[in-house]
TrEMBL record:
Record InterPro entries: TamB_C
Domain of life: Bacteria
Subcellular location: Membrane
Entry keywords, A to Z: Membrane, Transmembrane, Transmembrane helix
Tagged with keyword Transmembrane helix: yes
Source organism of the structure: Aliidiomarina iranensis
Protein name, entry field: Translocation and assembly module TamB C-terminal domain-containing protein
Membrane-spanning intervals of the chain: 12-30
GO biological process, alphabetically ordered: protein secretion
Residue ranges annotated for the Translocation and assembly module TamB C-terminal domain, each copy included: 916-1249
One Gene Ontology CC term in the entry: TAM protein secretion complex
Topological category with respect to the lipid bilayer: Single-pass membrane protein
Xref: Pfam families: TamB
Amino acid sequence: MMFWHWLKRILYIGLTLVIIVLTGVTLLLTTHTGGRLTLYAAEQVLPGDFTYDRWQGAILRDFEITDLRYRNGETNIEVDYLQLRWRPWQLLKRQFHARELEVSGVRLQLPEVEPSEPSSEPLFPIELPNVELPFSVRLDQVLLTDIAFQQGELTQQIERIQMRGRTRGDAVHIHSFSLTMPDFHTQLHGIITPTGRYPLNLNTLLRLEVPGYGPTTVVGSLNGDTDSLQLKQQISGYLSAEVDVRVNQPLTEDLNWQGLIRILQSTPDGLVPDVEWLNASLQGSGTLSAVAGEFRIEGKHNEFGAFVASSEAEFANQRFALDSLFLRAESLGLMLDWRGGATINTAENVAQNMADTDIQLSMGGLLRYQDYLDADITLNLHGTPTRLDTFELSAQSNKSQLTLSGNASWGNDLEWDIAFAIDDLLLDRFSTIWPGLNSQIAQNQGADNQSDNQGTGAQGNISQENIDQETLNPEAPKQNRVSLALESSGRWGFDRSSGFSEDNTQIAIELLRLDGELQNEELAVSANLNWLGEHIHIEQLNALWGTQRLVGDIQANLNSTTVNVALSGENLTYENFSIAELSADLVADWSLAQLPTGSLSLVTATQDEQVLVDNLSLVLSEHSDNHHIELQGTALATDIALALNGNWQDQSWQGQIETFSFANEEYENWRLRRVANAVFSREAISIDEFCINNEMREAGLCLAADWNLLTQKGTIDARMDSLQLALLQPILQELIADELNLSGFLDADVALLIEDSQLSIESAVNISDSNIALPQQDLEFRIGASELLRIQGDQNSLTASLDLRTLDLAGGITGQLRVTDALNLGPMDGRVNVQLDNLGIISILVPELQAIVGRINGELGVGGNLAAPVLTGYIEVLEGGGEVPAAGIRVSNLNMRLDAPGEVGEPFSLNAEAQSGDGKVNIAGRYFFPEQRADVEIRGENFQAVQTRELALSISPNLDIIYSADGLRARGELTIPSALITPPDIETIDSSSRDTVIVRGEETVFSFEEESLPIDADIQVILGNNVRVEAFGFDGRLEGRLRVREQPGQQTSAVGTINVATGRYEIFGQPLDIDRGNFTFTGGAIDNPGLDLRVSRSVDSENVSVGARIGGSLREPNLTFFSTPAMQDSAILSYLILGRAPGADSGEANVFAQATLALGMQGGNFIGQQLGQALGVDEVTLDSTGDNLENTSLFIGKHLSSRLYVKYGIGLIEPVNTFFIRYRLTDHLHFETQTSGDRSGADIFYSIER
């Protein structure tokens, strides 16, 4: 009994203890207080410091905790906020189910660990663990924000982690996962099974900020298992890319891959600069140590245009192999298509054994570069990165062949032994980059084209088709071809400190052969070059090109910086320069430690066929440290002589000018009065009393100077005695078309001193009674004797005065100026007075203006300082007028006033008005001097602009014009109220091309000069109610308006219409009514408007109405006839011209038939030109060789060479064949022959161009 009693008691006690423990555990896990007790226990048990701020909830329910802190040594964990909402009872079902887990403000700091030793274990194979969870996991919402991690110097900031997912069996289903860091964001969803072969199917997104290029996004997928993985990615942002790669056995040494990688760039500011767009791709396969495939890249460069490159290559086992290479750049005209083999076998340690890398190449194929090169290339070489044991390059084109072979090394010094040869090189292809050759080819071929086209109205153009005559005519003579062969061996020494070593340099070049034909002249050149250490020697130079010849010997010493030149030449030319004879025997020092010695002579040096030097001899000699220079000869039609004797020391020449003289027909004879001492250097010039006298007059010039060229300070004394104004006549005559006569003389004295703080000047210019006359105009301008100009003073005060007195004109020009503290650009004060009551002098200065009347008054003030002068006052023209004979008008009531700015930065202002005919014009404008810009407004009404026999024109302008250094800009309207156009009767009008130049002897009579000032114009031209044309049988009135536009570098264009309001046309005395006449301008060239014309005529006696319509454009018109009743075109033409039908018993029918044929071919010749280009001939035309329509034939012609032209004709009605030949014997002599079925003939023509 007692046993059972105690057993019960023990059971009750045990059960009570279990209940108490379970109750305690339940209280700890399910109550707020229990949670706090659990945290309190953790504080007592955990090592280190464990604290928190607030606990809310229960462990087996939802709970949150704030400011959780744990610190143990260098380990520090901080959590600002943690919340968990979960279903703990799901643990009974072996599932952890968290409805929401939120953590924020996490800072994790861990102690720095020592870096682990590199593992000696092989990387492969990689074994993944089998991860089997004892329970399932379900996470409805996980959010982690503001996480900071630090371990030693490693820091990482995570802004946000968000995740949803669950497990099902062994598979992990990731519904969503996102990670956000600064400049980085990634998202992931899919399925992965972390057991066995790890099958996975994941979709990914990655967004990151690339420094300097902006945001980039990567979207793709990863599918497969440990046996095979498929990676697909799309990249967008500063560049676009596509990756599609399959990797087999990714965890073993047998890893291999195959796939496609493509990169796209669509903006010029992407990864590759200056490329507008780019498409690069790699299609290939590989392993861990090998890669092979095809690489292709295409795109468009901002400067070089579109390009394409592709190659097939392989890299495996330290060996690189290239099988093909293709490159094309259309804008550069470059194309390369090579095949063969190229291998690079590298050493295991490339950085230390670069010299052991073996390179072999054997490739060839097409290489094309613009029009210069089109050849098959073969290249074979064997070597290393520091040497080529053997190399051989050959290039073969249609006519030329190039070879280059030998060996070279550049490990320490550059050493080589090569042979180079090129046969039959056509230089015409290089004419665009060889200016001297280009000009000669252009002249030669331009002359040929001009001769061939004489009498045909055609113009010759130099183009690739003209230059490459072999393409047009294989039988053409071979011009501009050379062959070259040379051998060279040597060493170019390098020094680590200076980069070049003279001691180790030894170069030998032997020019074996350079010969050929250049511009129809034989060419032959030979020479040897030897470079041994500091000595360079070019010997046995012998160059012959036609009549040009240059022979000699050149030696240079790099150590002593001297060169010995012994050359002689004959008939030397380059571009537009030529020298008949040249001889040089000089020893020079390019460091200028000493002056050169020897001799140099020139005979007949010309430019553009104008003689610059007739003969010139320069002798340089040195005796006892004295260097003597003697120059004699004739240059620019002037006999000159100069002799200097002195010494050269420290880059300075000091000596005497012993002789100086020159004699010219226009400027007379001048000679040095006495020996002058002088010093010349880079820093200063010193001359002691250098005086020259005119041997025919009492005139002379003297100069003494001691001037520092660096500081621009020193003294200058100059004097001019009785300098005849007639000596200036040749200079001024070039500015005036009519004959000019000058008389009188000038005297001048100048004494100038400029030092650091001192300025002194005393100068005066005096003029005698002088006369300026134009005998052909019967005009004369006389100047009275006066002190024309005086400047004197010092650094404190400087004064200037001007006094120009006239004897024939009332008034004159006077002025005074005072400058204070001139060395410091101090203030100035002055005034200029102008009073001219007779303006006849203007006709002398501008002969195009005659009978000038009016007066000029003006008062100008000068203020400010020398650095920023200020002009005040005005100049005005009152009651002016004059005649313009070329325009046939007289301008009257001309009043103009020009006002000075008055302040710095302000513009000049202009106001003017004038009358011509019954109208007037007003001009207002401003001129900004510092910016060189002007604004002008022109307003007028019915101003008579032209009044000649051929043209009477009145205008009403409303224009705004802006002038600047960038060009001229014009806007506004130009109304033509009335005009009468009556040009003289002429049979033909021939217009000259822009390259026409007319010469008479050595004088250029006429040439076109392109305007250098760009013009931007947009002007409305309006025709008034009284614009009439009486010319070439037409009498009518025009009306309409045009918008005329002119842009720099573009043709003048127009938009608008000009109509014939009323008018009649008379031909052969027969009047025609103009029913409709429109000239339409649609924005194209102003000289090619569209035509819409209709003329008609009624013959009442025969009840006939006929007419013609003209359409098309001015350059390509279309002519059609109409009539009532209907009839043939020849009959219509007879009615239009004669007013009756063609005579039945006369040749009128044939005449009008031929005229109709000719009119019809006005547009047909254009079709013939297009047909000729398609057939490869030069001419396809219809022509009639007799008086009857039956003689009409179709002619086809072609230039077989630059001298020979052949034309063949086939009769369209009569079976008559015609054969025509024209052969150019010389530039002026032509031979022509023509043979047909019934007759033959031959002619010789001699032409003279004027």
